[in-house]
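Complex record, two chains
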Amino acid sequence: DAMVIQNPRYQVTQFGKPVTLSCSQTLNHNVMYWYQQKSSQAPKLLFHYYDKDFNNEADTPDNFQSRRPNTSFCFLDIRSPGLGDAAMYLCATSRDNDEQFFGPGTRLTVL
Amino acid sequence: GQQLNQSPQSMFIQEGEDVSMNCTSSSIFNTWLWYKQDPGEGPVLLIALYKAGELTSNGRLTAQFGITRKDSFLNISASIPSDVGIYFCAGQLRSNYQLIWGAGTKLIIKP
């Protein structure tokens, strides 16, 4: 089945220790998104790649970076995680501006 | 940021009851999406609506795109235990990747 895969599902890191979350997709969608979601709130868009073009949301902290080495993979790098960065991180994909399909998420804990 | 008005915030229902929730906005949208999110998982797309007045069903779920393009509702008939979770509406302009989210409706089934 075509899908969006996120690894790991649970990630624990220490305050200030860099962490990378990964996302892959078999849908062959050209757009990939990273969202942050806290405690049953709606997902909040951090940035997205439209093909190779990176688009950062205005209020996304500089602490968050992303890489997309090819169509299938996208990474979220948190350079110096703070306690406030503990959240569920969701990857999503779409074909152009069509409906978005989400992965299962990575729950990040910061100690 | 901009958010849709989604109601109710939570619902306590008996198994077998019908459920109705809705979203309203001061802005018009080209697309309305309804997602369901289980605890610890990513949102799953239930229904996508593309035309004003459109009524679409997916099993026991029925959703409608309001004629003014500023609202949508989701109905669930004959609820079952696996319907519990948080339901999110999202509006989208066709020219824009960005989803505008409701705050979610938490569905709880009374034992």
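Note: The first strand of chain B starts at residue 5 and ends at 7.
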